[in-house]
Specification:
Number of strands: 8
Largest sheet: 8 strands, antiparallel
Order of helices and strands: HEEEEHEEEEHHH
Structural class: alpha+beta
Number of helices: 5
Length: 244
């Protein structure tokens, strides 16, 4: 009997299970294999200088977030496509810190579907005022980046984003919640050991807006100026449908 075989299998399982979203980029319609090379020029929304990631701005939106005494404050967020992670997501401040949430195509599709389901439940008056409604519509993988200065985002990790809703002053808001995520940055002195719980609130109109901005249609339109030689051939200029 080979006593080393279980150990080898365990190591293989661990290696697969610990892959980051960036390593699974081919799950996305804008993966490196499907997305045309970007122009060698400085794009809008350049950020993450500390790790040389490049963000391309794809729209802005508004949202609400609670402060320390659970009083709602309005904020302005930005939709980004990250050319290193091959993912799209958004940046929105929370408790005076900067957070970036990046999602692959599957997570973005779930976001859209869950917002639509929220609209149905809203119109049918079936939304509950108590319970764990913040995760009513399930969860999906998310890549979290955070820090205090835009040019030095010094913490990042992989977690789950939960889709749901919560009532505030008798009004139901669609919510996106991410519980504390472990910081995977090797230089722990540069940032916190883990993030705090973050929860964004959206009115129906705000939720509809963010779903549209994170759609493949909007991302394709906004990113098209950064495509290289779009006139050369149909195979180079066409962004294919997702393989599954």
């Amino acid at each position: 009997m080979n006593i080393y075989k279980p150990f080898v299998v365990l190591l293989a399982f661990f290696a697969v299970s610990t892959q980051s979203p960036a390593q699974n980029a081919d799950n996305d319609i804008f993966s490196e294999k499907k997305f045309i090379s970007l122009k060698d020029e400085k794009p809008k929304g350049l950020g993450f200088f500390s790790r040389k990631n490049v963000n391309y701005e794809c729209g802005t939106f508004s949202y609400y977030s609670p402060n320390q005494i659970f009083k709602m404050e309005s904020g302005e967020g930005t939709i980004y496509y990250n050319s290193s992670l091959k993912m799209a997501g958004f940046q929105a401040n929370y408790y005076h810190q900067i957070y970036y949430l990046f999602m692959n195509e599957n997570t973005r599709n779930k976001l859209k579907q869950n917002i639509e389901q929220y609209f149905v439940d809203f119109e049918s008056h079936s939304l509950l005022k108590s319970g764990k409604t913040y995760k009513k519509y399930g969860e999906a993988p998310v890549r979290l980046e955070w820090g205090t200065i835009p040019s030095m985002i010094d913490a990042h990790g992989n977690g789950k984003i939960q889709f749901g809703y919560r009532f505030y002053n008798n009004s139901p808001y669609f919510t996106l919640t991410v519980w504390p995520v472990k910081n995977l940055e090797k230089n722990k002195a540069a940032g916190s050991a883990k993030s705090i719980k973050i929860q964004y609130f959206f009115t129906k109109k705000q939720a509809e807006t963010i779903a549209i901005l994170l759609s493949n249609e909007n991302l394709s339109e906004q990113l098209s100026p950064y495509m290289k030689n779009p006139e050369t051939s149909e195979s180079e200029t066409h962004i294919e449908s997702d393989k599954y």
